[in-house]
Write a structure and sequence with these properties.
single chain, alpha+beta, Beta-Lactamase, Alpha-Beta Plaits, 5 domains, 6-stranded antiparallel β-sheet, 29 helices, 24 strands, 48% helix, elongated, disordered C terminus, Diguanylate cyclase (GGDEF) domain-containing protein/HDIG domain-containing protein
């Protein structure tokens, strides 16, 4: 049966009882949701309705688990034992008396975690209940049995159970968070309707506030972890290290047991099909793991196989809360997982990898966790791209362009490094020098293009034949070198024979009708020998094989006769002019390449540093200011700006700019399709204008920058949460200043900006949600105390006006406004009997009242953007002479905002009716403020406030005609 309609009689008492419970619940709600809060709610419900016992049923998910809390005398020992396997754990806890309010310390409190059929039935019962009801007779008896709450004494059947469903988010259609069952409440059912609704509303607000607090605390922890992770990821440009860090940080942020980072790779031609894979030419390769065996690295997955494969196939995140039932778990490494989530990693407009985290226990995965992993994946993708670019640069700088092997300079560096390692550690090392026999005939008969194909095939064959930690380099022309690590001559000879076979097969596969053999000179490093001496001995062995042994053989340096000498021609003293020009050309080209590589490396390093800097920011404007600062100062761009879409997305405005911009730039608006930025947004890619004036790509620059400062332009779109947000724009005064390398660097910055703005948006949404719950508590306080409602509005207006009169800036004024709104929020925890007592407070009551500033600070502490407001709320009752509370601060030690609010608060209190006295005349209140200036109040604040009153009401206290309208407008 539903509750009867409440009568008006007793409504005030019902609301008072419920609000008294609200005050006691508010203090514990700020610490977040949990068993103690639910136990406290049950204890308060028992006290409010004077029930014999109270039970709380809480089913957090659909995993067949249920929490059962019992509060009241006799709860221990009156329940029969649960059926076999139903009880998974039992802990007895007492709610702290300060938090449980009137819950007596003599009460028995117990908490069980149930599983099995009993848990499912209780959870289903709680979920079906939509409104408060009273149960009698057989229905009540059955529920008592289900709760294990049979009474020792016989019951007549008329003893009721009162059921109170506490729903989330203030909606009757929302999922039930907690069901309260009150056994034999003494308050008559017909008279308790008003109280029921009041208590349900209070409990709902308390649990929702606690839930929001808990979610916000977890989100703040994730954001802090994201900040640390972004800083860590951007500290390195070493790709394997970055991938390993991504796995470790992702698992840490989401408290996961495992993490895996997959890279997209092309299937090798002719490779076998992967089981269950689609027809894609690409696959996933596991590159880094956390919490999984190292042997898992290298695992290959086809698109569509496993959770990661599904992400690769669809391009969308994948969440599973029953991984063991998912079809096609890819490998035994993952069979112990029960839940997980995977998200794509993209950069350059393409899927580049998949990031997965997993849990070994059943778990409900929230949308917030998915958003967190997506945000982290964006940061990780930027770090991966920077590291990949750096790796590519290093590869270009150290690789031979034709064969893919180490170039000559890199080979020399590698050999010198390995020789030094052997010298320090006593390791062994061998060097193989290879020469392709009769290679000149290939060039002569088939041309240099075929010759290049042979060299390319040989280089590939060599790299595939050696061990992963050996080195292959092109020594020059048709000569190659193998640095065989930790190998004596005998082991190196085995490698040499394998190499000969691999080269023969590679050349044969090309169909070249020329027999190409391989002559190899082998030398093992001797202690004390230099790298140059080792090369000389290997080269001597190679030449001995070519000149004396008929080629296509392996020759050890120690087998070369001592009297064998190389007749090397002397180098020409002077090179002919043509050769000089050729050499000069190569030198200039190499120099230009070196400059380019250095520039790209520096830009990537700067982008990484910028990412670490932005990771610590949550304010969107600070983020865009940091970007333009870095582009102008560190990257050295002449003029730069971040532009954002405004209105309906059809216009662009300058969010931040540096360099040679006009005074109109900050307020200028441009059409979305204007010039290079418009094209970049339409085409969704970075665009370069080498000569903007010649190309007619003017971009409305008269509103942004001097025309002669923008001959070269570069624009990159910025995307936030999959939607266009704006663009990054840079310019130089000369033509042809930008190239593809600059576009790559600016794209990295734009990606970092998009990821940071996304995190800032999530943070802002969370702040708004928590602010809403805090304001709801403030509204509850106004309902609790009629004086508080009008007092709060008047106080906010006066405090803001005094702050302006004292010349404070807008940010300080906003903090004072918020401080005035929330200055009394802690009174929600003060009992009504103290708040509305008609006479003086006792010492004990005064001490309890004075705790409201500390409780208010505690309630607001989880709100990050209110951190500057907390001192105002805590110290609003400090006195100028140091005799205030809670910390006894004096004079300038007290925050100015607190001093302002104290004066305005005192004036409002004196000029308002209170339970213990009528309102004082305005002139008397003014005199009291002036008399206590310098003892209780800051004299400067009192002067400003009295001057404000004079402007509004005139010196005598009556409103003047001019000032009255001003007061209304303020």
């Amino acid at each position: 049966m539903t509750m009867p309609a409440p009568s008006s009689a007793g409504s005030a008492e019902a609301v008072a009882r419920a609000l008294a419970a609200a005050g006691r619940l508010a203090a514990v709600a700020a610490s977040g949701p949990g068993p103690e809060l639910r136990m406290t709610v049950a204890a308060e419900a028992r006290s409010v309705f004077e029930a014999e016992r109270a039970f709380s049923i809480y089913a957090p998910d659909e995993a067949g688990r249920c929490e059962l809390i019992a509060v009241g005398r006799g709860t221990d020992g009156t329940r029969p034992e649960a059926s076999e396997g139903a009880r998974t754990g039992l802990s007895r806890e007492r709610p702290p008396s300060a938090l449980a309010g009137e819950a007596r310390s003599s009460e028995e409190c117990s908490r069980e975690e149930l599983a099995g059929e009993r848990a499912r039935r209780l959870a289903a019962f709680a979920a079906e209940l939509a409104a408060p009801v009273h149960l009698f007779g057989e229905a009540a008896r059955k529920l008592r049995i289900a709760l294990g709450a049979q009474a020792v004494e016989p019951l007549s059947g008329a003893e009721p159970l009162l059921l109170l469903p506490i729903t989330s988010e203030g909606s009757q259609q929302a999922p039930v968070r907690q069901l309260l069952v009150l056994d034999r409440p003494r308050r008559e059912p017909a008279a308790s309707g008003e109280l029921v609704q009041a208590f349900v509303d209070v409990a709902r607000a308390t649990l929702e506030h606690a839930r929001t607090s808990g979610e916000r605390a977890r989100e703040l922890a994730r954001q802090a972890a994201l900040t640390r992770a972004a800083r860590t990821l951007n500290e390195s440009l070493d790709l394997p290290r970055v991938l390993t860090q991504i796995g470790r940080e992702a698992a840490g942020i989401l408290e996961a047991d495992t993490a895996a980072v997959f890279r997209v790779a092309r299937r090798a031609p002719g490779a076998h099909e992967l089981a269950g894979a689609d027809s894609s030419a690409e696959m996933l390769v596991l590159e880094a793991v956390h919490g999984l065996p190292p042997e898992a690295i290298g695992l290959q997955l086809g698109y569509g196989v496993g959770a990661a494969g599904k992400v690769a196939a669809t391009g969308r995140p994948y969440v599973t809360e029953a991984y063991e039932r998912d079809p096609g778990a890819p490998h035994e490494f993952f069979t112990r997982l029960r839940a997980g989530l995977c998200v794509p990693m993209r950069w350059g407009g393409r899927l580049r990898g998949v990031l997965c985290v997993g849990y070994r226990e059943p778990r409900r995965i929230t949308a917030a966790e998915l958003r967190t992993l997506e945000s982290f994946a964006e940061l990780a993708a930027v770090a991966c791209r920077n590291a990949s670019e750096h790796e590519s640069l290093a590869l270009v700088a150290h690789s031979d362009a034709l064969t893919g092997c180490l170039n000559h300079a890199a080979l020399q560096d590698t050999l010198a490094r390995e020789v030094e390692r052997c010298r320090r550690g006593g390791h062994r090392l061998s060097l193989l020098l290879l020469d392709l026999d009769h290679f000149a005939q290939i060039n002569e008969r088939f041309g240099h293009l075929v010759g290049d194909e042979v060299l390319r095939a040989v280089g590939y064959a060599l790299r595939q034949t050696v061990r992963g930690f050996d080195f292959v380099g092109r020594y020059g022309g048709d000569e190659f070198a193998l640095v065989v690590v930790d190998a004596a001559e005998s082991e190196a000879r085995g490698a040499a024979e394998r190499v000969r076979g691999a080269v023969a097969r590679a050349v044969q596969a090309l169909g070249v009708r020329v027999t190409v053999g391989v002559t190899i000179g082998l030398a093992e490093w001797r202690p004390g020998e230099t790298a140059a001496a080792l090369v000389a001995r290997a080269e001597r062995a190679l030449m001995y094989g070519k000149l004396r042994l008929g080629r296509d053989t392996v020759v050890s340096a120690r087998s070369v006769p001592i009297d064998f000498a190389l007749d090397l021609p002397q180098r020409a003293v002077e090179a002919p002019p043509a050769a000089e020009r050729l050499i000069s050309g190569f030198v200039e080209e190499a120099s230009a390449q070196t400059v380019r590589l250095r520039k790209r490396t520096r830009q990537l390093s700067l982008a990484a540093a910028l990412g670490a800097r932005m990771a610590a920011m949550t304010d969107a404007q600070r983020i865009v200011e940091a970007v333009v600062d870095e582009l102008h100062r560190a990257f050295g761009f002449h003029s730069c700006a971040v532009l954002r879409l405004v209105g309906d997305g059809d216009q662009l405005e300058v969010a931040a700019a540096r360099g040679r911009v006009t005074e109109k730039a900050p307020s200028a608006r441009l059409p979305r399709d204007a010039g290079l930025v418009g094209r970049a947004l339409r085409e969704r890619r970075a665009l370069v204008a080498r000569d903007a004036s010649a190309e007619g790509d003017e971009f409305g620059l008269s509103a942004f920058a001097d025309w002669d400062a923008a001959q070269s332009q570069l624009a990159v779109p910025v995307w936030v949460e999959g939607e266009p947000w704006g663009a990054v724009f840079v310019s130089e005064r000369e033509v042809a200043c930008f190239d593809d390398d600059d576009a790559v660097a600016l794209q990295a910055v734009a990606d970092l900006l998009g990821a940071s703005l996304r995190s800032a948006r999530l943070y802002e949404r969370l702040e708004r949600a928590y602010m809403g719950t805090s304001e709801a508590l403030a509204s509850a306080l106004e309902a609790k105390d009629a004086y508080t409602a009008s007092h709060s509005r008047s106080l906010v207006r006066n405090a803001e006006a005094v702050a302006r009169k004292l010349g404070l800036d807008e940010r300080e004024i906003e903090n004072i406004r918020l401080g005035a709104i929330f200055h009394d929020i802690g009174k929600i925890a003060v009992p009504d009997r103290i708040l509305n007592k008609p006479g003086p407070l006792s010492d004990a009551e005064r001490r309890e009242m004075e705790q409201h500033t500390v409780i208010g600070e505690r309630i607001l502490r989880p709100v990050e953007f209110l951190r500057d407001v907390l001192p105002i709320v805590r110290h609003e009752h400090e006195r100028w002479d140091g005799k205030g509370y809670p910390d006894g601060l004096a004079g300038e030690e007290i925050p100015l905002g607190a001093r302002i609010i104290l004066v305005c608060d005192a004036y409002d209190a004196m000029t308002s009716d209170r339970p213990y006295r009528p309102a004082l005349p305005a002139e008397v209140a003014r005199q009291e403020l002036a008399r206590n200036a310098g003892t209780q109040f800051d004299p400067r604040v009192v002067s400003a406030f009295l001057a404000l009153l004079d402007e509004r009401e005139g010196p005598g206290g009556a409103p003047s005609e001019a000032s009255s309208s001003a007061a209304v407008s303020s």
